[in-house]
């Protein structure tokens, strides 16, 4: 119980801290931050339920007025934009990433984590973010894909790969720390 | 930890957080019901006027917050110019500025402790479904406590990297950073358990 609460709080803080890493600017000129990788990592490492709770706690604290988003943003205002679907989607992204990790037993942990991050951190996330934009703006599907998905997709793919690399390396260093693999770990 | 509440005291600081949040939800929905562009324009001016009421410091602080909207405004402007849907574009941008501006006003005039109190209140019915609200409160306190030390650890790792390499520390820093954090979390969980933990104080 205590360990679960601490791990959830830790990953909430970790997601916030990743937002402080220096931005990487893609060739397209769009800056990407490491923050959304935090949600992938939370799911891949903590598993579905704890990962989702860490992501949910992060979103709740941002809404409460803590400047935890990359660039020191936060507060209720960010939920007013049609891009807010991302914030609602983050807990689901972590959940699905964790679920894939938990279900897909055996095989290379790093590789599975990378694939889980693609399915959860990209697939599930945009499954919330794109329809949210369509309804909140309101807009057509074409505009939504171009404005919501296209700018962030290259960065998200890079983050999924890094999530795989980090989870794989963590599994080697501390097998017991990959809670999504508890019971499988030696 | 710095929160986004404005240090400039306004009358709205005194109003109950629940009331402000309920009003915000209603008004934001109401923004979609305004039919005419000129009416929406008036509402936008009114919202900006609200920022100006408490004085210059508050106004400038608020406008700095609103500035984070510019990248979004730019993307949308390009889209609506490219598709020649100018009226839709302007309507949407004004609505976005109003909704964001009002929500941000609530954040700027409500203390973090009050917001957390609202979260606790909202979570209370979930106790019936087995949610331990004490665990939630502890988790919130832990995040606020852990974050500065995480940032400090991260800074040390970046420094250590810079001493050894002329290249910028990239994502590689995340692995030792996470390892450190996981070890600290284990110690913290043990310490909590040693002090009675959460089980005994679990509320029914």
From TrEMBL, chain A:
This protein's UniProt keywords: Cell membrane, Membrane, Transmembrane, Transmembrane helix, Transport
Transmembrane segments: 51-69, 76-99, 111-134, 146-171
GO molecular function: biotin transmembrane transporter activity
GO CC terms in record: plasma membrane
Pfam families: BioY
InterPro entries in UniProt: BioY
Compartment(s) of residence: Cell membrane
Protein name, entry field: Biotin transporter
Gene responsible for this protein: bioY
Automatic annotation (TrEMBL), chain B:
Entry's transmembrane regions: 40-59, 66-86, 92-113
Alphabetized UniProt keyword annotations: Membrane, Transmembrane, Transmembrane helix
Family to which the UniProt record says this protein belongs: Belongs to the CbiQ family.
Compartmental location: Membrane
Protein name, UniProt field: Energy-coupling factor transporter transmembrane protein BioN
Matching CDD domains: EcfT
Topological type in the membrane: Multi-pass membrane protein
Alphabetized InterPro entries for the sequence: ABC/ECF_trnsptr_transmembrane
CC per GO annotation: plasma membrane
Main location: membrane
Pfam families named among the record's database cross-references: CbiQ (PF02361)
Organism of provenance: Cognatishimia activa
Taxonomic lineage of the native organism: Bacteria, Pseudomonadati, Pseudomonadota, Alphaproteobacteria, Rhodobacterales
Domain of life from the UniProt record: Bacteria
UniProt gene name: bioN
